[in-house]
Amino acid sequence: MLGGVLNLYKPVGVTSRVLVERVGRILKTKAGHTGTLDPFARGVILVCFGKATRLVSFFQELDKVYRARFRFGITTDTYDVKGRITTVSSGELREEDLLRVLGDFRGTFVQEVPPFSACKYRGRPLYQYARRGEHITLRREVTVHRLELLSCLEGAFGEAEFLIHCSGGTYVRSLAHELGKRLGLGAYVAALVRERVGRFRIEESIDVMQKGIERDFLLERSLPPEKALYFLDAVEVGEEEARCFLHGTPFSSPVSLQAPGMVKVLHGGAFLGLAFWDSSRLLPRVVLAESCHVA
Fold first, then answer.
1. Pair 121, 173 in one domain
2. pLDDT tens digits along 219-237
3. SS3 per-residue string spanning the chain
4. Of 39, 43, 121, 193, which residue is most buried, by most CB within 10 angstroms?
5. Strand pairing report for 187-197 and 64-72
6. Which listed residue (38, 207, 216, 278) is catalytic?
7. Are 19 and 96 contained in the same domain?
8. What CA–CA distance (Å, rounded) separates 228 from 222?
9. What is the pTM of this model?
10. Is there a domain that residue 54 lies in?
11. Whether residue 203 sits in one domain with residue 176
12. 56 membership: H or E segment, kind and range
């Protein structure tokens, strides 16, 4: 069995780690999430189990859709509602000011990673440095495809609700912090819902924290790795190419491929793993099957 991928619902107050550990206990196998969701937030989190845990990194860059509520006039050290208050502003939020600057936070730009995050620096998560009072600056390029203002409560300590469609790796907490800074008010994330990861929607997610969730139920609701990797092209190979793949040997593609990139390798309709197409050969990257005949 190659394992699978689960679209799970993370409730507020539950850590991503607790969710993964529960899946591992129910299925009696290893499991791993494809991108953490802060404890104060709720919504979609993808969890791979079994051999599919080797595919975690390929889901991390999927676009995300969030519904977020920012509170202005206050900043916290974690950039969210759970943090320690660091500044308080006497200014007032005005919708017209907000609308005037929103365009600057759409498109592709470089974003600073929050000091309290799981992003690693020299092998250690940033939050470990932050707890010791050390500020490590890490930046990454992100894309915000959509930043729509849904509602605005003006005035002192005003709040605004947004719909955000962004690239994988985007920090909504940093978005709130920088937006608040631009307005001269400061801001933090008061509430956050991850509504979608790629095609995986919150309406179809499973709450494994509920009582009575059993192994068979999760297996029935899980997606096979090849279906979960809907965003990758698939290449059907013959017996000889399949044997090369299973032994980690590069081989020519039996079909023409366009741009270089990762592809799914199948034999007789069975998923063998992933290979990288370098414009001339297929280079095995993740070999999941042990033979050419996958049950």
1. yes
2. 999 999 999 999 999 999 9
3. CCCEEEEEEECCCCCHHHHHHHHHHHHCCCEEECCCCCCCCEEEEEEEEHHHHHHHHHHCCCCEEEEEEEEECEEECCCECCCCEEEECCCEECHHHHHHHHHHHCEEEEEECCCCCCCEECCEEHHHHHHCCCCCCCEEEEEEEEEEEEEEECEECCEEEEEEEECCCCCHHHHHHHHHHHHCCCEEEEEEEEEEECCEEHHHCECCCCCCCCHHHHHHHCECHHHHCCCCEEEECCHHHHHHHHCCCCECCCCCCCCCEEEEEEECCEEEEEEEECCCCEEEEEECCCCCCCC
4. 43
5. antiparallel
6. 38
7. no
8. 9
9. 0.92
10. yes
11. no
12. helix 56-59
Structure token digits, residue 40:
């104060």
Tokens 């991850």 locate to: 194
Q: Is 97 a catalytic residue?
A: no
Q: Is the pLDDT score of 44 beyond 50?
A: yes
| pLDDT tens per residue across span 79-92 | 999 999 999 999 99
Cα 215 from Cα 28, distance rounded (Å): 8
Specify the pairing of strand 85-88 against strand 233-236. unpaired
Tens digit of each residue's pLDDT (9 = 90 or more) over 52-68: 999 999 999 999 999 99
Q: Indicate if 203 and 58 belong to the same structural domain.
A: yes
Q: Indicate the residue type of 44.
A: V
Amino acid at 52: A
What local confidence, expressed as pLDDT, does residue 294 receive? 45
Verify that 97 and 158 share a domain, yes or no: yes
Number of compact structural domains in the chain? 3
248 neighbors 274 (Cβ within 8 angstroms): no
More confident residue, 293 or 132: 132
Q: Which amino acid is at 236?
A: E
Helix (H, G, I), strand (E, B) or coil at 115: coil
